[in-house]
Every structure is written in C-alpha cells, then in structure tokens.
User: Which sequence fits this backbone?
C-alpha cells in the first residue's frame, strides 16, 4: 500500500527540482536583473500602501469633530491674537473644533508610510541576504555573497502574494464593518478589531507564502551553494520558522 505522504513528497520534490533548475538557468552575476526584482517589489509595496489608504477612504464613511490643528492654542491667541499681530489674528479666527472625514484622514496618514516602503524593502533584502549567506556558510555552502543576494531577491518577490492577500482581507474587513465611533480613538479601536478578525486568513496566506519562499531558498542553496537538499532544507527551514513566528505575532 503506497504511503499517504508519497504524493505530497513527490510534489514538493518536483517543486524543489524546478526551483534549483530555475536558479541554474539564471546568471547569478547579472546583478542588474536582481536589483530589478527588488525595485519591482519595492514599488509594489509602495503601491500597496497607497491602495491601503484608498481602502480607508472608500470604506469608511464617517465624520468626527476634532481640535483644529490650524488654530494656535487658546493661551497663544489670548496673548498675541490681536490686530497688531495679523498672522496670529487670522489663525485665531479659525474655529477651535472642525469636522473631518475619517476615511480621508486615514488615507492621508497612511501616505506618511510610503517612505518606509521605499527604504524598508531594500534594507530587508540586504539583511535577509546577509543572514542567509551566513547560514549557508555555516552549513558548508560554497556560493558567493552575490549568490545569496540573488536567492534573497527571489524569496522576497513571493511577498507580493502576501501583499495582495493582506490588502484584500483588510478591504473586506473594512467593507463589512459598521463604524459607529464618535472619536478618532474609538474608531481606531473598531478598525483594529475588524482587521484582527481576519487574522486567521492572513496567517494562512502567510504560511503559503513562507512555504513558497522555502522552496525558492532551498533551490537557490542547492544551485549556488552546492548544499545537499536535506541541509539546504534545514537552513531554509530555520528562516521559514522565524518568518512564521513573526507573522503570527
């Protein structure tokens, strides 16, 4: 009687063979192509943040009253808000409280994180590549640092699938949630609760992506570092386990 694990093992083995063959087909010394992959992921992550802001604006139809950020504090207006100080006088004529659209405010706030995506993805790529190279060397790998950067680039490319899944889950959570809060703080709690309810699907998506990354890294370690599949699997498995723990936190 065939083992129930025979079919999954054959599938995984086939995927690893394809991954190894793909890396052998690539030219690891073509750094421009590798950088292009990272640039593409960086731009996609940036667009993801913009899309998140659009999701807030499209799904949250709520206004709240907040302190007017364009009006100086009352003590400043009492001291300087007279006709002899036209700048302060004009600002102090502004209302103390104004109504704001929550969706628009969150969209604007999310735009502040675009810069983090632009620098965060390349930094994460470099850190992952260096750590992967160290792990490969400890396991007896023979590849260069550049080889490890190539492997890391293709591994982080799989994050695009997690990005799409995350945006879809957040959009669904916001679209199916009724926001009733009367302050920005209470609305923020409602939004966090709605997104937290999608933790299960998001964690499942993360597990699939991490599995794909494991296949990519194992194939790369076999092709470029000449590691046996079992050793490569262990090295990649350490990083996969760490990634899953971070995703679950």
Assistant:
């Amino acid at each position: 009687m065939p083992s129930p694990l025979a079919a999954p093992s054959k599938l995984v083995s086939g995927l690893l063979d394809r991954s190894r063959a793909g890396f052998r087909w690539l030219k690891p010394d073509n750094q421009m192509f590798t950088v292009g992959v990272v640039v593409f992921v960086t731009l996609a992550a940036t667009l993801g943040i913009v899309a998140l802001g659009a999701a807030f604006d499209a799904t949250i139809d709520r206004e709240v009253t907040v302190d007017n950020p364009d009006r100086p504090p009352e003590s400043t207006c009492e001291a300087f808000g007279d006709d002899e100080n036209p700048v302060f006088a004009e600002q102090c004529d502004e209302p103390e409280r104004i109504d704001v659209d929550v969706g628009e405010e969150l969209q604007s706030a999310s735009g502040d994180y675009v810069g983090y995506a632009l620098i965060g993805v390349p930094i994460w790529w470099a850190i992952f590549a260096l750590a992967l190279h160290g792990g490969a060397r400890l396991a007896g790998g023979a590849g260069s640092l550049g080889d490890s950067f190539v492997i890391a680039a293709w591994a982080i490319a799989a994050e695009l699938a997690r990005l799409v899944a995350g945006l879809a889950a957040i959009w669904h959570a916001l679209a199916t949630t009724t926001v009733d809060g009367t302050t920005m703080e209470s609305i923020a709690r409602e939004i966090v609760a709605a997104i937290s309810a999608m933790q299960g699907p998001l964690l499942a998506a993360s597990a699939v992506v991490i599995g794909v990354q494991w296949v990519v890294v194992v194939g790369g370690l076999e092709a470029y570092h000449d590691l046996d599949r079992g050793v490569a699997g262990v090295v990649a498995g350490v990083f996969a386990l760490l990634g899953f723990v971070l995703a679950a936190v």
